[in-house]
Amino acid sequence: MRRMKGLITQFHKSGVFFAEVFILVFVLFLAPTTPKVFVSTVATNGPQLLINGEPGMIKGFTFIGRLNPLKTVCTTLIGSCCAIKEQIDAWQNWGEDLLKIARDRFHANTVRIQVTKVLLDPEGPVFNATYSHEIQTAISLIRSLGMIAHVSLQWEDDQLMCKLPQGYDEQPGDPIIWRYQIIRCWKNILEPFLNDTGVLAELLNEPAIGSNCEAVLSFENWNKGFQPIVSTLRDFGSKNILIVPSPYQEHYADTTAIKGGSSIEQYPVIDPIQSLIFGMHPTPVIHGYTLPCIISYLSESDWNKWWGDLSKKMNQSIIVTEWFTGSKAACWDNTTVLYPVPAGYNASSTFQSPTIAKDFLHWVGTMKSSISGIFHFDDLGYIIQDWTGTPTNFGQNGAFSCKQQDLGPGEMIIDFFKNN
Predict the structure, then answer these.
(1) pLDDT tens digits, residue range 1-24?
(2) CB–CB of 75/82 below 8 Å?
(3) Cα Rg for the chain, rounded, in angstroms?
(4) Residue 181, Cα to own-chain centre: how many angstroms?
(5) 414: alpha, beta or left, given left = phi > 0 and alpha = psi -120 to 50?
(6) With CB atoms counted within 10 Å of each terminal CB, which end of the chain scores lower, N or C?
């Protein structure tokens, strides 16, 4: 404080008091903020990722603000998709200000943007060059802010486009058919960024291959689809880290605990430059309706069973590409009924979202894993309460209820990202 008074006195005596104070105020309060760490490179090193050559963690949020090109496509199709308020709000609020809130207030170093597959296929019936440019511009903006750009190619075209051209198979089950479309999309997206390892390519988000129980017991189609995609993109010159989604909508990487089950270890996707990460969606829900294919993601034993143990065994990086629990989605409180009942639990088991979130983030930290897809940052009520970035929380004095609106892990995420 004395030093500051002395400086002000000196400025005043030299006749430049007002100019110097103005500059000082500008530098301290008005100048653009910069990230603590500008991410230049990302690399794999067994289960541990390297950020700028040092052990680090990918920490980020999913943004849906580049998912649906409202101004360029919806008006030419069916307007009903444009009436989805959350997507309109996210599209309109996309930009540098919101990304900086994620970076500076929430300590994120990564932005995961979901993009619409059908519009990015140059040989497809509704390819949109303007939208393609929007996505590349978004990637460049994220990188200019010193953050990792994680691009996720959305699987469900029918939900995002309202109505597709007649005869267009939006979710072909045959991996030999859809892999060509995926390759064309990624060549289009990545061409300007082939040597930028700070751009991550999530090859597909939640691809549904086979029926639930069939997919649990067989990983063969998963391998047939993704191995050619990885090999082709490497031949194309991509140095980017490729994120391969775990089988059946990223619900597991290992089902050997189930009789007749398999794992990605038995049907491995081989990367010639060893820069693969496997994606996982451990949002606390229960999948399946009949044994043996009832799978839950409620506790550390679940997360280890379906992903963690295999990651250690294979010395392989995994990344959480989607996760949330709170009153807006995947909510658990003391009134939630555990049904159907997975193996290892009983019907009287009780879970609450705040405890699940705390335990899960602790598990991510101990696994030295990464988490880029906490959703959705630009859909109010999940992570932020308003567009100024007020974080959600799990309520006061432990009084959490799924009936309350917009309770979530925002404050908990700030602490986790800050300390990891």
Answers:
(1) 333 334 333 333 444 444 443 433
(2) yes
(3) 23
(4) 22
(5) alpha
(6) N
